[in-house]
Amino acid sequence: MNIWQSVLISAARNKKIEQLMQNSRSASSIAKRFVGGENLDQAITVAKKLNDTKVDVSAFYLGEYVEDEELIFKTVQAKCDAIQKLAEAGLDVHVSVDPTQIGYMQSFDLFQKNAEYLAEKLKEYANSKTSRLMFDMEDASLNEPTISVYRDLSRKGLPVALTLQAYLHRTDDDLEREIQPNAMIRLVRGAFAAGPEKALQGQARITDAYIEHARKMLKTSARNIGFYPVFATHDPAKIEPILELSKQNGWEKDQFEFEMLYGVRPDVQEGLIKRGYRLRLYLPFGQDWWAYAARRIGESPRNATLLLRSVLFSK
Question: Are 258 and 233 in contact (CB under 8 A)?
């Protein structure tokens, strides 16, 4: 992890900075770039416009590491509302969830209970093969509980999906187990700090690992059982080899998808759409936007001017 990214992660977790930024009118330009709206109605409007350009969304109500019981309940309800509103709008019902925002900070049992409740709700409104409750993967301590709940709900026939992080050593084994009939796995780079005992170090090694994982996900045998790969990346150095692998192994363009973040690398997004590939955008909404936006800024030093302008003109 570079120094710039480390600084922004620290800023994302600083309560004083969070209060300053979220109360600043000037800083709202950051939220508008990376967040789909302050409320669900605004996010649905954005999602409809994206859908008109053949782009699906994964709706995400903002918030993380939530300990307050009332806020946990509010978060679960917000995700239920998103499920229903997506269906009513005729959009693919796909919602992402962090374990730490729906009860894990209270107990594993509460997380599992709320996750099953959301998955049952999504099953009620599911309208496509890609309608899923997608479990985001947070820091390494959440790997086992997240995978455990995902597997339990999968066995119950609920429409869930799982995120795996390419930079972790354990992902080789996890991926082997999770390439199952009709399963959906989202492969991400991995953005949480982890030492060499748990994770690969260095951009080149992580990129190589990502492509090797993609190779497994795009095997002909995976295609034949109805496995559905999701490649979460904005990096052409990963995208092009993935496209070549998909062609070599006979995958149709609608049998897998790419996922990117709302507001990040629109040029790469447009290029994939023009080539006829499936694209989904991770679409956050809500008022608790600073921590999420700060990490997006941290991923690229080019965004420094956006942050600086907001700080200088904060009121």
Answer: yes
d(CA 49, CA 52): 5
DSSP one-letter code for 3: H
Between CA 169 and CA 209 the distance in angstroms is: 9
296 catalytic per annotation: no
Question: In angstroms, what is the C-alpha Rg of the chain?
Answer: 19
Helix (H) or strand (E) holding 164: strand 160-165
- Tokens, residue 276: 């006829």
3-class DSSP state of 59 = strand
* pLDDT for residue 198: 80
Answer yes or no: are the C-beta atoms of 312 and 29 closer than 8 Å. Answer: no
Residue 117, pLDDT score: 98
DSSP state letters, 213-259: HHHHHT-HHHHHTT-EEEEE---HHHHHHHHHHHHHTT--TTSSEEE
| pLDDT tens readout for residues 192-219 | 666 778 877 888 999 999 999 999 999 9
136 has catalytic annotation: yes
- The list of the chain residues with pLDDT below 50 reads 4, 8, 305-315
Q: Which of 92, 98, 136, 174 is catalytic?
A: 136
Contact (CB, 8 A) for 27 and 314: yes
CA neighbours within 13 Å on the CB side: how many for 91?
28
Q: Which of 132, 186, 189, 280 is catalytic?
A: 186
